[in-house]
Write a structure and sequence with these properties.
Layout (H helix, E strand, L loop, with lengths): L10 E2 L7 E3 L2 H14 L6 E3 L3 H5 L6 H5 L4 E12 L2 E5 L2 E4 L8 E5 L20 E6 L3 H10 L11 E6 L1 E14 L2 E21 L1
Parallel strand pairs: 2-3, 3-11
Antiparallel strand pairs: 1-4, 4-5, 4-11, 6-7, 6-10, 7-8, 8-9, 10-11
Length: 203
Amino acid sequence: MTIEKGRPWGEPGGLPTGGVVVGSDAEARAVVERARRAGDPLPALGLLGGDLCRTLGGTGDESRLRGTGGMRLPVDIGAVLADGRLHWFVAHLVTRRGWWRGRIYAAMNAQFLGPWDVAPRSHPDDGLLDTLDVDIGVGDRLKARGRLPSGTHVPHPGIVQQRVAAVQVELARPTPMRLDGIAVGAVRSLSIRVEPDALLCVV
């Protein structure tokens, strides 16, 4: 069950038997993709690093994962059908040709993208993805970049922000897409959706 106001989220505990320790969002995504393509249940993930780990308050302390000092937290994952091919992501999807020109589209399950607080309102277990559609000039991009570390880049009239369970995105031309920081090719048509409560993470 996704998080609800006034109800506790997660429970104390270490990594269960069969869980996998990962050090980055890319490693977490690889585990998820492998299990989904094989039709296997998703194993619990012990997070030592990455943007999802940071969003969940992880410390990178592996002893917490192995003992009783950790927290077990259910989280959503994202799925995207990109030009007919299905992929998954745990933290974020980003399409862009460059940071300084052209349209940028991001779907965030985590709050952070590297040093940037891209989606200040995002929660990884609310059954929603936070999307940002950016099409602004270089001057405004410079200003927004300076505000990204503190999450004060929004609201902005040139940045369309939504919270969605599913969304269809059509890009004007093939645009490079990165899932959890890994390039997966250029795409034009995206069907993005959230899979609520799909993954158990331990931090």
